Amino acid sequence: MFEERYPLQVASYGFVNPWMYRPSRRLSVSIGFGVMDGLRSKFTDTRLAKVEQRADEILAEAVAHAASHKAVREKVERRQAERLAERETQRLDDKDEERAKFICEMADDLRRIAQMNSFVKHLQAVNPPPTSEAAKCLRWGEEHLEERPAALELAGMEKAVHTSGLWVERA
To answer: Residue 133, exposed/middle/buried by CB under 10 A (0-12, 13-18, 19+)?
Structure first.
């Protein structure tokens, strides 16, 4: 079984003839994901000590690597959470800006209707001749203002607010 898999495994090392590779008989252990400052990540057999005899040292380094990786992961997660919170705050600020703009537009509409109403009442008080341009203006103003009270009532305002979509909460 070993003789069948050995050439395939060793061929992955880049040797032209896998049977030319001979293991060194030196055990090597790597820990961690990449280089971490001040931490050792590779242990190899030496003449003085085998890797098996240094299990406590390797385990201590593995724990240090895990702690270091955990700190890095927590730092990344904290940065991601901060960015998400900033985006959410910006989104809420933008939505508040849109809401304020909508309310100002509605207030402008109400002011404009009040001014038109005042002008129509003034024309009614003046009572222009029926064939004059002022009478035509008065009739148009009265017709136009007849449509407006529905928009100024609660149902009309509710419809405008709903259509804007600015107060719909999304999960």
So the answer is: exposed
Q: Three-class SS of residue 30? A: strand
Q: Which residue has the higher pLDDT, 115 or 152?
A: 115
- What is the rounded distance in angstroms from the CA atom of residue 91 to the CA atom of residue 145? 38
- Calculate Rg over the CA atoms of the chain: 40
Q: Single out the residue of 145, 146, 156, 155 nearest to residue 114, CA to CA.
A: 145
Say how far residue 123 (Cα) sits from the centre of its chain. Answer: 56
Residue 8 has pLDDT above 90, yes or no: no
Alpha-carbon span 63 to 32, nearest angstrom: 10
Hey, what amino acid is at 37? D
Nearest-5° Cα angle at 78, 73 to 79 = 100
CA contacts within 13 A on the Cβ side of 163:
9
Q: What is the pTM of this model?
A: 0.46
pLDDT for 40-81, tens place per residue? 878 888 888 888 888 888 888 888 888 888 888 999 999 999
Lookup: tokens for 6: 């050995």
CA distance 21 to 29: 20
| pLDDT on residue 161 | 81
